[in-house]
C-alpha cells in the first residue's frame, strides 16, 4: 500500500515539474514568470530552514543573514568586478565559504546549550549583519543598495526561470536524500529525543553543527538567486522580514516534509502578490502580513504539522486508532 | 569630565530602559522556562499606548499609568490564550512568541499608522540642570530614578513577601512548589503580567527620551535585552540589572568614540559569555539544558 502511495507521489511531482517546465512555452506572462521564479527562490530558502526546524529541531531566528550573505557577495562581485561567469563562480565560492563559516561558528557556540540560545544568537547576529550592511557604505552603498549587471546567461528571464526551477528540484532531491541518509536519521532522532540519542553514543553536537552548516550554505544559494533575479540588492535582505517569511512558509506549509516548504513558499508569495493588489481597495491589506501572523499562531497551536503534515497523517492516524481499538477488543 | 559624566548618565538611562525589558524576560524565563520573543512587542505597545493617553489627557503621569495598564492587560491575555496552551514544548513556545511579536507590531501599524510618531517630555522634565558647570539633562535623571525605584521594588517583593518567596522557589524547582499545594499557574500569570507591565513602562519612558517612536523599535530593544539576559544569566534578576547597566554604558561610550562598533561590542561580549560562562557573568552553578 505504501509503495503505491509513494509511486503516486513521485508521479504527481513529475507531472507538476513537467507542467512548470513547459509553462513558459504555452503561457507568456512576464509577471507570472517573475512571480514563479521568486517562489522557487524562496522555496529553496524555506527548505533550508526546514532542515533545521523540521528535521533537527533547531530554531533559528537569523536565517536572513545567510540569505543576505549570498545576495551581497553576488552583488558585490558583479558590481566591483566584471559580470562574467568567472566572477560568478568566485561569488558562489565565497558565499559557500562565508555561510559555512558563520553557521559553523554560531553552531559551535550555542548548539550545546538550550534551544533558546541558538535562536537568540542568530537573531542578534543577523541584526549585526544588518548594521554592518548599513554602515559599510563603500562596499554596500548603505540602505539604498545598488543595482548591478549579471552574466549573459542569466539575462533572459525564461532561462533564469528554468535555472531556478532545476536548482529547486535538485536541492529538493538532495535534501530528500540527505534527510533519509544515516546522518539525516540521526538528525531526526535528535529532534525526537536529544538525551536518548546522546546516550546511544552519538556526538549530538557534531550532527547538529553539520545540519546547521548545510542549511546555512543552501540559504546562501537562495540569496544568490534572489540577487540575480532582482539585479539589485539592499539591506532588506538581512532584515527580520526575510527570516519571518521562511518561518511562515515552513510552519504553514508543514515542517519536516520539504514539500511543505515549497507549498508554503507558493502560498505566501501568491498571497503577497494578490493582497498587495487588494491594498488599493482597502488599507488593511497593506498590512497583509498580519493575517499570516494570525494563521501562523493558529497553525502552531492547533496544527503543529502544517498543511502537508496534517493532510498526510490524517488517514493513517485513523487507521492506527481503529487498529488499536480492534486489538483492545481482542485483548478484552 | 563633563563629557564622561554625560556619557555615563546616558548609558545609565539606556541601561535602565533595557533593564525594564530584560527583567521581565529573565523572570519569565527563570520561572516558566518560556523565552518570550514577543517581549519587544509589549515594549512597543507600551510606547504607543502611553503616548496616545499622554496626548489625549495632557498628563505624562496618566500616560505612564495607561501604558502600564495596557502592558499588564496584554500580558494576561497573552499568557492565558497563547502561551498556556503550549507549556512544556520549547520549540512551539519559541515559534509562537515570535509569531505574536509579528502580530503585535503589525497591529501597531494598523492602529497608529506605519509612520513614526514624535514624542516630547512634559514641561517639568524638559531642559537641564547646571550642576557646578556640568549640564545634566533632567529627563535622563528621571529615567534612571524610575529604573532604580522599580528595581528596588521588585527586589523587595522577591525578598520580603509571600509571592516573592513562591516565585523564588518556583525558579529553583517548580514541581516541588506545586507539590506543596501552591497554584503555580496563578504565580505564572502574575509574573507574566508584571513582566509585561515593566516592558510597557520601559517603552513609554523611551518615547520622550529618543524623541520618536516606531513599530520596529520593539525588536531593536529586544535584541539588546536578549544580550543582557545572556550576559546576566538566564533567570537571574540581579544579574539582569548589572548586565543592563554594562550594556548601556558600553553602548553609550562606544557610540561616542567608535559609533560603528557599538552593537558589535555587545555582541562580542555575549559571544565571550556564551563560550566561557553560559550560565551568565553573574549566575551560579551549571547551565540547565
Written overview of the protein:
The complex is a heterodimer of chains A (332) and B (289). Chain A has 332 residues and is mainly alpha-helical. Helices cover 79% and strands 1% of the residues of chain A. Chain A has 14 helices and two strands; from the N terminus they run H-H-H-H-H-H-E-H-H-H-H-E-H-H-H-H. A two-stranded antiparallel sheet of chain A has the order 1-2. The longest helix of chain A is centred in the N-terminal third of the chain and has 27 residues, at 30-56. Chain A is globular. Chain A starts with a helix and ends with a helix. The mean pLDDT of chain A is 84. With 289 residues, chain B is mostly helical. Chain B has helices spanning 2-32, 39-57, 60-83, 90-112, 138-160, 162-172, 174-179, 184-210, 217-232, 237-257, 262-276, and strands at residues 117-118, 128-131, 134-137, 212-213. Chain B has a two-stranded antiparallel sheet with strand order 1-4. Chain B has a two-stranded antiparallel sheet with strand order 2-3. In chain B, a hairpin with a 2-residue loop joins strand 2 and strand 3. The longest helix of chain B is centred in the N-terminal third of the chain and has 31 residues, at 2-32. The termini of chain B are far apart. Classes of the chains: A mainly alpha (332), B mainly alpha (289). The interface between A and B is large, with 37 and 42 residues.
